[in-house]
TrEMBL record:
Organism of provenance: Lupinus angustifolius
Main subcellular location of this protein, as a coarse class: cytoplasm
Subcellular compartments: Cytoplasm
Protein name: ZF-HD dimerization-type domain-containing protein
InterPro entries: ZF_HD_homeobox_Cys/His_dimer
The keyword Zinc is annotated on this UniProt entry: yes
Residues covered by the ZF-HD dimerization-type domain: 24-73
One Pfam entry name: ZF-HD_dimer
Gene Ontology terms describing biological process: regulation of developmental process
GO cellular component: cytoplasm; nucleus
Domain of life: Eukaryota
A single MF term (Gene Ontology): DNA-binding transcription factor activity
Keyword terms: Cytoplasm, Metal-binding, Zinc, Zinc-finger
Amino acid sequence: MRKRQVVVRRLEGPPSRSVRSVKYGECQKNHAANVGGYAVDGCREFMASGDEGTSSALICAACNCHRNFHKKEVEAETVSECSSPTSSGT
């Protein structure tokens, strides 16, 4: 049996950083679950009821439910500040 060799290549230079933007979209809470149905309230976007850092910041001002019921949309962008080597043009 042959052994496998794993080669890890490390890039020198400044590490890349990731910029994340989190947005909460439409509410997906099923209001008719206790009667065996399916009904959502139509809330299109999470709007915090209070200031950031308070417990009311996790409650939606439009539909009065917790932020976890809203669809989480993450936009990630990787920013790398390394430069590639230039060729001599030949």
